[in-house]
Amino acid sequence: MTSAIAIVGAGPRGVGLLERLGASIPDLLPATCCGSDVDVHLIDPYPAGAGRIWRHEQSPLLAMNSMAADVTMFTDDTVVCDGPIRPGPSFWDWAQELRASGDPDVLGPELAAELRAVTASTFPSRRLQSAYLSWVLDEVIAGLPPGVRVHIHRTRAVELTEEGETQVVHLEDGSALHVDAVVLASGHLDATPTDEELALVARATGLGLRYLPPEQTTDSDLSVIEPGETVIVRGMGLAFVDLMVLIFEGRGGRFEPTGPGEDTLRYIPSGAEPRLVAGSPRGAPYHSKTHYELRAGRPPLPRFLGPAEIDPLIAEGGPVELLAQVWPLMAKEIAWGWYHELFLGHPDRVRLSWDEFAVRYAEPAWGTPEMDELLAAAVPGPVDRIDFAALDRPLDGLHAPDLATLQPLVQERIAEDLRQHVDPAHTPHLGAFVAMLSVYGQVGRLVGAGALSGRSQAFDLSWWQGFFSSVASGPPGFRVRQLLALARAGFVQFLGAGMWVDIADGIFHAGSATLQDAPPVTSTVLVDARLPHASAARTVDPLVAGLMRSGAASELELVDDDGTVLRNTGQLRVRPSDGALIDASGAVHPHRFAVGPHTAVKLAGAFTRPGMNSQSLRYNDAVARAVLRSLPNSAAEASAA
Fold this sequence. Notes:
Blueprint: E1 2-8, H1 12-28, E2 37-43, H2 91-101, H3 109-117, H4 126-142, E3 148-153, E4 157-163, E5 166-171, E6 176-179, E7 181-184, H5 195-206, E8 210-212, E9 230-234, H6 238-247, E10 254-257, E11 265-268, E12 275-279, H7 307-316, H8 322-345, H9 354-361, H10 369-378, H11 388-392, H12 403-422, H13 428-448, H14 454-472, H15 477-488, E13 492-496, E14 500-504, E15 507-511, E16 521-523, E17 525-528, H16 542-550, E18 555-559, E19 565-572, E20 580-582, E21 588-594, H17 615-629, H18 635-640
Parallel strand pairs: 1-2, 1-7, 2-3, 7-21, 8-17, 9-12, 9-17, 12-13
Antiparallel strand pairs: 4-5, 5-6, 10-11, 14-15, 15-16, 18-19, 20-21
């Protein structure tokens, strides 16, 4: 008997699921070893392995925001999951092995040269990551159990229907796949603009203005931006960084060191670039990635926010208020990572031994006078104390009468933040980052168990995810150096925090809370530099759109205690434990699953740092095993019969 599985989306998430399927098939489909086969169909219009985001066909200037040593697709002995652990090479291991005993030239001259120069702390190009992901796919396929066949379909899945329990995946070329289970792993789904964005498009078009709504920056038509003109940019996250790269280096500009090393850069214009005036709610770019290693080793985690604290909250059945009840533990855990690194890695800057501090730190709650007194007494330097308010709102307290006066003030804060993230004197930032990853996983357990109140999930959780992204998902330090070079040269200006945009007198106007009394910036071009907000209902993906129209899929709505809908997340509702798809009636489908950013289960990414008990790898394992149990010849079904 042959079983069949379709994975819609063959990027890193789809490949990660394939790896976990292969790991658990001997356990859950023992009949495979005795004559039964499994067909796995990977469906994606983009190259399998890399997928859309990491495909080779994009600008060679675009880089990852992770170091080579911090990227892996494989489980290791830190990953706690039900399936077998199958270690494999990280990006850095792969690069070293290819250099030592392979042939880098098979990648082509540009990537071969990059591979030969890459180090553990290099931020590789996305094209080189594409090569790694393609290799991972080949490695995963080669390591599958006997009887498992993989079929790659370089096309789009346009519809999902069923005939009895058989799932029918209709492809763009008119053919159809009849399978036993389907996993939707398409990643970020493009969506039609919101009503507000459509209204903005209509107004802008009627006035002859240009508006680029939210989308993948690499797919935007930036040719509509003319050299020399002022462009208002809303958003300063990773999409903004991509925009900066493509608009400046991508148009022939270049950066040169101003002296030995590359600590300070100057921008040499090409003459084809515009001038960007950028803002956002925070008013500053995401914090730079750290460029150093821990001196004290990984902090012992979890310490203050682990199963002992989370399990009782889940058992009580909620509702839990994240900021009121859990944030003090979250903050204490993140600060524990910071201070573990400070005390053991920089003992000359503290007044207590680590052993004494750890005992005294365990007693008071975060934010209490007792904790504040301990930190002030034990850590004399203010820069050595973690400051959550400054991390969350970097421009707090900053005001200026006009745009010109504001620029050096913002540049100074960005430069100081960069210094702390690249100078090994400030490795506590990395200790906090490692602890944040642990906290993210524990908060995910609360969310997955449905323990948070609707109001807390609608507002508190959104704040936490935004804060996590700004601290943990920032660009490499060299990108921040480039941004500062552009700012010093006058090609990028900062609007400040609390940005607003309007159309008045036939033109875009923009300002901020930081520039309360200043005249607005005006332009004929506005770019929303961010991904579209999730919306399964507005998606342009035909398969998901069809499921939504028929009621076979639904979006997660966050509801207050009185039944009031607080917010529609736009994300597909799934069973948190295994990604099983939930329809409009609330029924869980036994053979349909979904995983990734288009679902209500938030994961840190499709690949991860080695040695971190990755939530993403653990969830891949849980989904893969649920898929296998749903098959007609699974061990679970056989035992039930």
